[in-house]
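Possible regression after last week's pipeline update?

I re-ran a chain I had predicted before the update to compare outputs. Posting the input and the new output here so someone can diff against the archived version. Not blocking, just want to make sure nothing changed silently.
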Amino acid sequence: MLSPVVEVKNIWKSYEVKKFGFKKTFFYALIDISLAIFKGETVGILGESGCGKTTLGKIILDLEKPDKGDIFWFGKNLKTLKKEEYKNLRAKIQAVFQDPYSSLNPRYKIIDVLLEPYLINIEKNKKRALEKAEEVLSLVGLGKEVLNKYPHALSGGERQRIALARTLMISPSLIVLDEPTSALDMSLASQVLELLKDFKKKFSLSYLLISHS
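New output (post-update):
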């Protein structure tokens, strides 16, 4: 049987919220959570604000550490991964966040936003990186003329397409989608969701879709 792309087992995560003298009070965002996501599968996490869904996404991405529990990427426990192995596997797990503007460096032109992950994770060949950038821009419905623009010069829908294009630059296996359409109007949100459906079929992608509605 194939290993899941990502699996979490018995994850706990708490945050300290108040102190009364020497007594600490904790808010438990995650209590004994387990789930697995297989190749080509979409798993949805639905819940109101503050229920811990974004925290779980960050733990899967290794942007936050759990209090206890285990995270597995491609059947391998993060606790046992060596540095080079961690780097290679981490590149296969990407994210698109709710606010595309805050996730794009405002000082970077779009060409830099797209080329950077390729040059760091795939190969230091700028010519092939640029070819890949033009390819993924076409996939998300944007022309290469955006390459020399800054994020502030793009619309919200265009920025979210750039965020998606950036993940495709390194051919991921899983994309964590944290409220990817909540900052967009209904028409743009529908377009982004259609792109995600197309990419899932085309690249056998797995998605963790986080939403409040």
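Follow-up from reviewer: compared with the archived run. The radius of gyration is 18 Å. Marking as no regression found.
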